[in-house]
Known about the structure:
14 helices; homodimer; 21% strand; four-stranded parallel sheet
Amino acid sequence: MTVIEEMGKKAKEAARFLSVAGSKKNSALNLIADALLENAEDIIKANNIDIEKGKEKGLTPSLIDRLTLGMDRIKGMADGVRKVASLPDPVGNIISGNTLPNGLKVTKVTVPLGVIGIIFEARPNVTADAAALCLKAGNAVILRGGKEAINSNTAIAKVMRNAVEKSGLPKDSIQLIEDTSRASSNQLMQLSDYLDVLIPRGGAGLIKAVVENSKVPVIETGVGNCHVYVDKYADIEMASEIIFNAKTSRPSVCNAIETILVHKDIAMSALPKIKEKLDTKNVQLRGCPVTREILGDSVIAAEESDYYTEFLDYILACKVVDSIDGAISHIAKYSSGHSECIVTDNYECANKFKEQVDAAAVYVNASTRFTDGGEFGLGAEIGISTQKLHARGPMGINQLTSSKFIVEGNGQIRV
Amino acid sequence: MTVIEEMGKKAKEAARFLSVAGSKKNSALNLIADALLENAEDIIKANNIDIEKGKEKGLTPSLIDRLTLGMDRIKGMADGVRKVASLPDPVGNIISGNTLPNGLKVTKVTVPLGVIGIIFEARPNVTADAAALCLKAGNAVILRGGKEAINSNTAIAKVMRNAVEKSGLPKDSIQLIEDTSRASSNQLMQLSDYLDVLIPRGGAGLIKAVVENSKVPVIETGVGNCHVYVDKYADIEMASEIIFNAKTSRPSVCNAIETILVHKDIAMSALPKIKEKLDTKNVQLRGCPVTREILGDSVIAAEESDYYTEFLDYILACKVVDSIDGAISHIAKYSSGHSECIVTDNYECANKFKEQVDAAAVYVNASTRFTDGGEFGLGAEIGISTQKLHARGPMGINQLTSSKFIVEGNGQIRV
């Protein structure tokens, strides 16, 4: 048995206890929050090693920033864990129930998923966030973080494991894989005897690798090629505000937009206003021929590949479309199915867009930046699912559960 | 582009229409039912070719029986399709909704999954059953059946496609892969650009191959290593009736039991009665040492591997356990998580078993044979999920849907 298989086995045993742990889970979470603060110094010390090494390796300042854990961020982690503790228990809820003609009572109740694997990159606070969410939903978790944050992750995991043990729950409810080689994440992807689901959190490359190689069911998260469509009946002022917000408030995240589509009848008046606003943050536009006719040659010519690209930067593709159907078709072809928006004052166009656009979140007259577990009121978020199976859109603790049927009888047999 | 990729592309286009097809889906289903009856002769003619070839290849009589489509079975298929048409539409239902503090209205609604792939073995009626369920839930389907039934499947698919076209929906809502080589099913497993989910229906070997090789999300179905635990407080008469029913009413199906666990305090009185009943159908018992002490050497000694085996036959493993905890631990180790039963008159034991046993369906005092979409009142069933992601237990049309968030505002941006 490999080290990772051993971990899987221990996690499965821990999961049996967690599935019936009830309010002990909250005690454990509150103890974790306390322990993170009490041991902040040790965590920061470990984090400093990661930062040193990162600088030596020439990580960019923004990566170093994501890696850094100051006292404020550790307080943020502890607060986050306490907030998760305060949420209602997602386990043991009755989803539905009925009595069959033969008298059998069938009840469908929520249960934990079991053992969850999480493969994540740079940010060490994911260790605490993800483990807390998994624990709250009664799941054991095996975390496999990136090598840049290994000292920080190890320190955080140690603190959490001790706190869990102190609460009377199994220490192995939370485990961290300390081997950060590619081999360890490959082994995790093969662990179908023990893992119920694997969630990759990170860049498109990581997610693709996990989806393609995992034998364990995967929840795909996070890739967002999002659009705003400015309809013929749009309020131009509103459209330009929404586009500006959706592109520039945080360009590096998945719910930021990458392409705008503009109805031909409004393009002449709308495009200059949209561009004026975007110019204040030096957003680079890449436009179709009609866009460039209207806005001039300062707009770079868009290539086909631009419409497929998640820029995650101050770059925005732009295309003038003939109709709402043209916009919907464009989205069907190029979108990653994350968040899509129409700006319109027309009732029928709004309804058509809502019905026909296939995405986790479809917006009318609001910024796509709201696609987020916190904003949607889920309490906290483990990721944003862009697949259709199991969960779609922001996933909170409810999406970390499964269900079972309880069937109660008095001797019924099937004839 | 390969033939299978072409099919994927066409399916995705068809799925766009189906997602907003509303009651046209029911017209299409009723036309399919009519067409199956009208073209019964052609279908039977094609089926005869498969039967001839099957006999030449030396298929067993039971496989030949599963392959055979008489007029009664075609009528059964047509009735099944009409029944699916009569079910409520699973698409467009509101799951939840709320208004955020900023005024955004968030509504979660059911939508089709999109494109579903189904890989199945012998029985040609799966072609009609599965396609009807997918269509009802607004999904396009790509079917890949086994080579033994290829002529029958092709004839059925042709009839269905023509009927769908007649209803005004895209013909490619239903497609059948006529190439039955291993290559075609491998290609289907790689089709992640077009397929939203892949459902294998067949033996354990097929399912394992799909789970391990598919890049498309899979719903695992059907493997059932099920148990009945006879508690210390069991009604022995009831226990032996339930065991007899769960083992012998149809041993070849996944909800039949494979092992019984008997509390040591009741074993002496219960085991002979259980055996007496099972003897009437010549069920072979494979017992632990204590079982053999009680029942004698006519009971074969069970090996460790027996407890892992889905016999699908008149064979039953038997183990005497020290306590309910022993039974629950045995099930946690050996069960496939399909259906598990306790027979008891004790309230606390019943509750403990219901809570702690991790399976798609957990029974108190009733036969595991009820785990079935039809029995549970789902109308019809596409399979029984034994995984925890997305759907668990019998899956009906509601399990062939996903959801999306509709977010409606009046210009909200995220600060």
